[in-house]
Amino acid sequence: MPETEHRWVIDLELTPPSLGDNTADADRLVAGLQKQLGSPNVSLDRTALLPLPDLLRKNNYRVRCIVCRDRGAWKVIFATGPADDRPIAGLAVDLGTSRVVLRLVGLADGRTLAESAFDNPQLNVGADILARIHYADTTDGLEHLQKLIVDGLNRHMALLCRQADITQEQIHLAAIAGNTAMSHLLLGTNPHWMIREPYIPAVNRPGLTRASDLGLNIHPGGRVLVFPNIGSYFGGDLIAGILYSDLHRRENTAILVDVGTNAEVVLGNHNWLMACAGAAGPALEGGVTKMGMMAGPGVIDRIDIDPKTHQFQVHTIENQKPIGICGSGLIDLAAQMFLAGMIDLRGKLVPGRCDGRYQEKDGLGYLVVIAADRSGTGKDLTIGQADLDSLTRSKAAMFTILETITTTVGVAMQDLSKFYVAGTFGSFIRPASAISIGMLPDLDIDRYKPLGNSSLGGATMALMSTDAVDEIDAIQERITYMELNVNQDFMNRFSAAKFFPHTDPSRFPSVQVWQE
Amino acid sequence: MPETEHRWVIDLELTPPSLGDNTADADRLVAGLQKQLGSPNVSLDRTALLPLPDLLRKNNYRVRCIVCRDRGAWKVIFATGPADDRPIAGLAVDLGTSRVVLRLVGLADGRTLAESAFDNPQLNVGADILARIHYADTTDGLEHLQKLIVDGLNRHMALLCRQADITQEQIHLAAIAGNTAMSHLLLGTNPHWMIREPYIPAVNRPGLTRASDLGLNIHPGGRVLVFPNIGSYFGGDLIAGILYSDLHRRENTAILVDVGTNAEVVLGNHNWLMACAGAAGPALEGGVTKMGMMAGPGVIDRIDIDPKTHQFQVHTIENQKPIGICGSGLIDLAAQMFLAGMIDLRGKLVPGRCDGRYQEKDGLGYLVVIAADRSGTGKDLTIGQADLDSLTRSKAAMFTILETITTTVGVAMQDLSKFYVAGTFGSFIRPASAISIGMLPDLDIDRYKPLGNSSLGGATMALMSTDAVDEIDAIQERITYMELNVNQDFMNRFSAAKFFPHTDPSRFPSVQVWQE
């Protein structure tokens, strides 16, 4: 994180008025802030204005206030006495399509007060974002979706506040990072045109909105910062991720990848940022295999296969009996099977190397990962050839996207100083496994950095400093978004990447070593 | 009025989006406005954002929007189609302590749509502003006063809209000019400290407030511009007056006077502005004499006394039977009596010159202006020595204030290029009469300019151009407010001015001519 320059909370000591200096209370405060902030564009919200005269006189013209900045204009949104020791809080939100994560922080000191997460209540209306966008077009559909998410936020915010022993009125700022569609649904703006050519969002930079306009139950004068997007397919969650990763401030070119059904990539340094997004297919999220599922207790997140004995060593979340496999587990499985010779260069099962785990059904081969007697479901956990083919396509798409963006910019993958992997995926994935199957390039393992929830991290950073708002806008402005054209070049790269690890194994020297 | 530079209504034609230009709808509009307005600080209100996507597509990316500017930041507060031929209206308000005047104008063309006036409903709570300021300190008193005036505005706005055949939703902007206390009571800010040393208002520059925050029933996204003040005793009504008079743009020094119980004076030109305010007493508003009253049907507003026959020629408003006299009528009466020799240099009645109109009661002399049989009240309308003494003090105070401010700045009264007189008083007063009694300086009559309702005029100008907001702020900033110290100099000037027209008659050469 960069150093905090201006907190949202400012303490001021004003000169009391006199017959010779009869400036009004509000204008006295504004003048003090103009000096402190170095900007002439300062004004007061009504909520801050009304209590001001008594507040100033009670505290001998010492005042603590919360300021926010939007498009060059500063606004005082709250004022209190300097001795008011109730925490002034901000709420950071990772507004995911499936999962929403909240973090309560102190605006004055940046301390985390509490955290929680909940399933996006819009899941009941539509599991994926496309279904919700269509639903938004039905009568009152948009209002319903907006209400669902705002109600969910209010409900869980109340719990969070109880946990932190504060009231919701003590929250004055919310910073919310979500994909473009989720941001639209929160704002109540219709995402209708996002999914229709030429794929135009209603808004790229929503800036600061009054919390009361959205129905968010924080302080009546509170503001909501919704992170900007740069198009229908590159949302505020990624802008938050860039902010959090510091990619935009690095001298050496680095890359940030958010892996999912849609793979989003940002490449750049302190001079330029290039982004693209492309479909990688659901395999990387564990979404296609029969046993695939999101991370949770009993889900396999790591597998090792002994190269000599071919014994499977399976790790599950919370060490419970295995019930399924998540994206990172699947990549581990495929990588280990490949290194053990159980699948070949084309990603096809090699029955003779599978030690009796190989079976067939309706002419399709599959491998038993966990036998029924050791699984948590009482049934075999298996991976089929079709699952592997799907994974092969997904990993090839991921690699092709990486190759295309680096080639376009003229940066060799080997020259990437850092390779950030965002999200839960980034936290669980073992880079060596992703390299083994040729999904990610063969870089020194220590250049790979998991970012964790970078969307929440970026949202939290926005609460640390008023400068973050400008920084976010600057990031949004600097990004060049590259449309991925599925042309002959792309298809050639994709075909070459469908091998394990690649048709050109010299690009993956480490894999050759690991195979030995 | 200066030329209109930027209307509040802007018509734009945007380039439709394409695969190669996927800027979001809101950001496309913002970019268009940034170019048009020459400012990077443009954003959209939620009320303007929500309908935008459909609006743009229905109108092939041609859009009409209302923008407003506050502290350097532009906001789009409404957007509609270019073919929308419903008038977009603004409301100008002269927010008087006693009387409120409304004017509905078209924001796009500046045309006046309708006008009306009503008594300030706060009169029921307190006739004068001091009573209301005290009432504001009682339980719910401030809220009650705010509700009274806002309800009054809403009620009369509804009538006005019916008259102009528009809906209240078609009003997007209100510009309100009132004295500092009335502005506070409208905003709901407590004027408590205004009347207590060192006399500090809660706010000098309220800027733009959301109409919905004040409860004003115009368009939900509409804004209210409350004119700034420069202290408890120099309000937004006077800033509006300066804007309207153009004093701040004139090359030659001129003066603007608002005559009332409190006399407010602004002196200046395009380089500087100096202001002061002082108590002149209620006589000039017709507030002390038994027969004094505010202008209305049957009220004497003009009197001529034939210098030979001493016959009274009385003019009343709407030519009804006389029932009283207003401030300007009283000045006429005193001036004519003085010129006819009925009162002497000290303002004392000269019984022998009063042709039987002179009477006494309890040892106090008075003059019958209208005998009972010709009056509208069935009683004699009289003016007493005490009334005349009160007028003498008031006119002396007025002249002393004028002399003090001009002397302080070093401008000879004779060099004033224009002498603006604001308000109803300014419209009715005959400069020659005011000069005759030595209330106003002996300038060429044609330098005197009545301004009429300059508060309403200034408020209307604010609706004509977005630049007016900056101009208003610039006026407010440029004014140097001079405290009138009642020191020996002041008292000497005041004593000298208590003569008719002055102890130094050479300062009033015209009066000597008129007396002959």
Helix and strand layout, with pairings?
Two copies of one chain form a homodimer.
Chain A (H helix, E strand, L loop, with lengths): L8 E5 L11 H13 L4 E3 L1 H4 L2 H7 L3 E9 L2 E8 L8 E7 L3 E8 L5 E8 L9 H7 L5 H24 L6 E8 L1 H8 L20 E3 H4 L8 E4 L9 H10 L8 E5 L3 E7 L4 E7 L19 E7 L6 E5 L7 E2 L1 H13 L18 E4 L2 E7 L10 E4 H25 L9 E4 H6 L2 H6 L11 E5 L1 H11 L2 H12 E3 L6 H10 L11 H7 L1
Parallel strand pairs in A: 2-4, 5-8, 8-10, 11-20, 13-22, 14-16, 20-21
Antiparallel strand pairs in A: 1-3, 3-4, 5-6, 6-7, 9-10, 11-12, 12-13, 14-15, 17-18, 18-19
Helix pairs in contact in A: 8-13, 8-14, 10-15, 13-14
Please supply descriptive tags for the structure shown above.
homodimer; 516 residues; alpha/beta; Ubiquitin-like (UB roll); Nucleotidyltransferase, domain 5; 3 domains; six-stranded mixed β-sheet; 16 helices; 22 strands
Description:
Two copies of one chain form a homodimer. Chain A has 516 residues and is an alpha/beta fold. Chain A folds into three domains: 9-80, Ubiquitin-like (UB roll); 89-226, Domain of unknown function (DUF4445) (Nucleotidyltransferase, domain 5, 2-Layer Sandwich), CATH 3.30.420.480; 248-516, no CATH class. Helices cover 32% and strands 24% of the residues of chain A. In chain A, strand 3 and strand 4 form a beta hairpin. In chain A, helix 8 packs across helix 13 (454-464). Chain A is elongated and about 95 Å long. The model of chain A has no long low-confidence stretch (mean pLDDT 93).
Number of strands of chain A: 22
Count, helices of chain A: 16
Query: Major sheet of chain A, described briefly?
Result: 6 strands, mixed
Radius of gyration of chain A, in angstroms, nearest whole number: 26 Å
Helix content of chain A: 25-40%
Query: For the largest interface in this structure, which chains are involved and how many residues does each contribute?
Result: A-B, 52 and 52 residues
Kindly, what is the distance between the CA atoms of the first and last residues of chain A, rounded to a whole number of angstroms? 41 Å
Spatial sequence of strands, sheet with the most strands of chain A: 7-6-5-8-10-9
Shape of chain A: elongated
Low-confidence spans of chain A:
none
In total, how many domains does the architecture of chain A comprise? 3
> What oligomeric state do the depicted chains represent?
homodimer
What percentage of amino acids of chain A are in beta strands? 15-25%
**Rounded average pLDDT of chain A:** 93
Classification by helices and strands of chain A: alpha/beta
